[in-house]
Amino acid sequence: MTETIGLWVAALFTIGIYSFLYKENPLYRLAEHLVIGISLGYFIVISYMRVLEPRLIEPISNGEQGAWLLLIPAILGILYITRFFPKVAWLSRYPMAFLMGAGMGVGFPLSMKAQVLRQLEASLIPLYKTGMSWEIVLGNVVMVLGTLAALIYFFFSKPHKGLFFGTGSKIGIWVIMVGFGATFGFTVMGRISLLIGRIQFLLGDWLHIIK
Amino acid sequence: MLRKVPAMLLALLLATGLAWAQAEDPPPAEPAETGETAETAEEAVLMEEGVEAEIISESDASIINATIGDGMIAPGGIVVSDWPNDAGDALLVTFEPGSETGNENHTGYAVYRRTQGEEELTLVGTMEIDDGTEFIDGYDPDYIVESGVQYEYQVAAVYLSGAEIASDPIAAQEVAGGQIFHTGKVRVLVGCALFLGLILFYFHAAQRGIEMYLRPIAGIEAIDEAIGRATEMGKPILYVPGLSTISDVATIASLTILGRVAKKVAEYGTPLLVPNRDPIVYTIAEETVKQAYMEAGRPDAFDKDSVFFLTQSQFAFVAGVNGIMMREKPATNFYLGMFWAESLILAETGSLSGAIQIAGTDAVTQLPFFITTCDYTLIGEELYAASAYLGREPKQLGSIKGQDACKGIIMAVITLGILLSLTDIIAGTDTLGWLRNLIAMPIVD
Description:
The complex is a heterodimer. By secondary structure, chain A is an all-alpha fold. Chain A is 76% helix and 0% strand. In chain B, strands 1, 2, 5, 6, 8, 9 and 10 form a 7-stranded antiparallel β-sheet that branches. Chain B has a 6-stranded parallel β-sheet with strand order 13-12-11-14-15-16, sandwiched between helices. Chain B has a 3-stranded antiparallel β-sheet with strand order 3-4-7, with no helix packed on it. In chain B, strand 11, helix 5 and strand 12 form a beta-alpha-beta unit. In chain B, helix 3 packs across helix 11 and helix 4 runs parallel beside helix 5. The chains are: A mainly alpha, B alpha/beta.
């Protein structure tokens, strides 16, 4: 019985969300508000159960070694609540500044490694080696020259005119768009499979029209 | 011929042992005909090639006895050393193989550990035979290695039958210790220093008043036009600062642009809506908008309900924003920041509502969706540069010039790679390999 009710609720809300394809309507609005409210409540519980309790409350209450250090992030977290009190609301800028500073500090070397050095290493490939098929050679040449052209496109401090910057940036934007086209097709395939999953749920699990 | 006898005997005993193991009521174990004596499965001690080992498996004793004859040797030569370039939370355990090469029954190793002074050994990791004879202890969060603690290790050879032959526990030769400097990241340090140096150089050059050119970017130039459109129509502007956290570079770039947009919105008196998914981003976005209204000289016009938190759930957030779009009918939608699968849903709905849309992200998989559904799209680094474009402050223009110089270096290295590759083709050398090694970094630090 419970399972049947769950099935009907899921099916009706699926239809409610899909009804948006026609236009914004009360059924969509009901589904929208419910999903926002429920997800918010769910995340509050998850945050307490998976973060606050095991990583802050339990270590401190159990007197684990070095647990006092957790008081520092706990105080920083509490400072966020000062936003509700206008006189001391300025205190909430401390955790914000800390997070932004830490975010940038941690992110910069990681980006340098993953998005610069690794990519640079990947583009330093031999154009030709004994035994390579012509398709691979062509692929290598397109990859290396395409990377160069795309980099030219992202030059902001030079006008995109002339042979190097003008032609280079035009080739660059073509390379980028060809790449996006391939990504578009690949991602759409994934989305279609999600749609098929929902239709299978409606026609199979709910209406039993298909097996 | 004599060498084959133990193998044949082993095969016979193994087959018998397996048959017993599969039977519902296995008969009691009998001593094996190998000359070895095993009192119990847990306490049997094997002396072979000078290595003292104990059988610690709970498997049937007959199986264990049967495998003894196959040259099963406990792993030896265990060396425990501190894993370099870490925070003192890993140890490297190396050992010598515990079986004859090519023994098909030998499937892997089990590594046990205990703190010195304790009795019970804990299994901290298992390895397949192909994994080699090096084990990094401390990677498994369930069995953390503490800095400065003296551990004892035992390595057991694991056999197909489930039998394990382990060496005596040995005290680790080293304890785990942290290092301040990660020698494996010197290249990252050099790269960061070079890039920061160039940015600071142009930063100061801009401060000295040197003129810097920035080529026009359609998407950024359209921002003023889009704000003006909303003002003329008397409708709100919707600004979505992405769905990621504050540690994402795209989010930080988006919040900087939000400040510029909010300042203009404050000057024109246009309503602004900023829904947020991340609680931290929400608070910073609110501060940013508030600050922008103050800079515009209109702190009284700031409506704190204009920046709001919806939910952390990805698609619930999208449902909420879509509802806002269809109900409030904003004249202009900005989607600037990090987006995932929701990008198309948002942009398509915005397009249906008739809003002019400007998007920008560094998510390669989402850019195609924004390009097809939005009026203007800032691609990747254009998003990072947008703030400097809007502000036209010398410092930020200098940083753009510095980033261009960094890109110039990258292009020079790639060009050098092409030339070296051509040299290698003609001369049969490996100069490109040298260049790659200069940049290459290990995948695992």
